Amino acid sequence: MFRRYFVNQVDQVDQVDQVDQVDQDEVQPIPASMDVSIKKKPVLFRFVGLLMLCLTLLILSELTIARIGAIPQPPDVPADYLPGKPLPEHVSCNLFSDKYWLCTLNDVSFDFDPASQMIVRTMIPVQEYTIGQLMAAWGKPTGFSMQDMMISIYWGRRAAFVYTRSLQPDSNVEYIFYDLDEPEDVFPWRGFRRG
């Protein structure tokens, strides 16, 4: 029985070898034009897919930029108006306190020290800015001070003055001011409170 099974297996292998020889003789080469189109289709699909991905990313980037908008740069103050300088010409002054005079030139206000003959504070009205925009332009604040609804946010010797009950990134700034010295009576910046 084993011998009969073994002989049958050998006969089947011989038949398969004969079929393989016949199949190899009958195989005809694929035309070159057909071969190239088969290779091009995956490349074309990859290119179209990559192009669609790039266009989608470009559109999403444009939408994000449009929502955020350009970050406005805070106004530049002429160097002659900054603290430590003498008063510019054509300034009108009033007695502010027994120590400082309050002076104005156009929209710019100055605290002037008659003893040292120097500007000690410069203030500019800027209702078109928010605290968040100034943070985006100037970085993380160094401190803040608060008295009732009057909040001052400091970046070293410059600060933003805000009237609000709850300070948030979209709180409008009333004034930007520059001081001669960094204030000492400020709290470290702790961020915004939620709610």
What profile does the largest beta sheet have? 9 strands, antiparallel
Principal-axes geometry comes out as: elongated
Radius of gyration equals 40 Å
Q: How many helices does DSSP assign?
A: 3
> What is the total domain count?
2
Please estimate the helix content: 25-40%
User: Any low-confidence stretches, pLDDT <50, length ≥5?
Assistant: none
Strand order of the largest sheet: 1-2-3-4-8-7-6-5-9
**Extended strand count:** 9
Structural class by sheet pairing and helices: alpha+beta
Overall pLDDT metric? 79
Q: What fraction strand?
A: 15-25%
Order of helices and strands: HHEEEEHEEEEE
Give the N-terminus to C-terminus distance in angstroms: 91 Å
